[in-house]
Specification:
InterPro entries: Rpr2/Snm1/Rpp21
Radius of gyration: 17 Å
Bound molecules: zinc ion
Number of helices: 2
Structural class: alpha+beta
GO molecular function: metal ion binding
GO cellular component, one term: nucleolar ribonuclease P complex
Low-confidence stretches: none
Largest sheet: 3 strands, antiparallel
Family: Belongs to the eukaryotic/archaeal RNase P protein component 4 family.
Keywords: Metal-binding, tRNA processing, Zinc
Length: 116
């Protein structure tokens, strides 16, 4: 009984540490997004690999839709990503095209990402 509580507590502490590290990496990569895109890409790739290794779910609305999964470039509308809205069989789609690697990603929702 006490072992289960100890392991559960250890997992939560581990998750808190992982979350704080991922948030730090995301904030650093956002700050370098326009000035040093190579460094920003490096930090996003570290964040993405760390999240996969720890089996941590990144928040889709704030993090996952803001960078390219192929080249890890942070998406800045008009600079690093092209956003198009299309209709196919009465379904609205938003297509994000990365301008660095030309990788396309389609989303169902019609909510575009915010420009900062
Ligand atoms: Zn890309």
């Amino acid at each position: 009984m006490t072992k289960k509580k100890a392991t559960k507590k250890a997992i939560t502490v581990r998750e808190e540490i992982a979350q704080s590290r991922l948030e730090y990496l995301w904030n650093v990569s956002l700050s370098y997004g326009t000035t040093f895109p190579g460094i920003s890409r490096y930090y996003v790739s570290i964040m993405w690999e760390m999240g996969k290794r720890l089996n941590y779910r990144l928040d889709s609305q704030t993090v996952k839709r803001y960078f390219c999964k192929k080249c890890c470039t942070i998406w800045i509308p008009g600079k690093t990503v092209q956003i198009r809205q299309t209709r196919h069989k009465k379904r609205k789609r938003v297509i994000y095209t990365c301008l660095y690697c030309e990788h396309c990603k389609r989303y169902k929702s019609c909510k575009p990402i915010k420009s900062s």
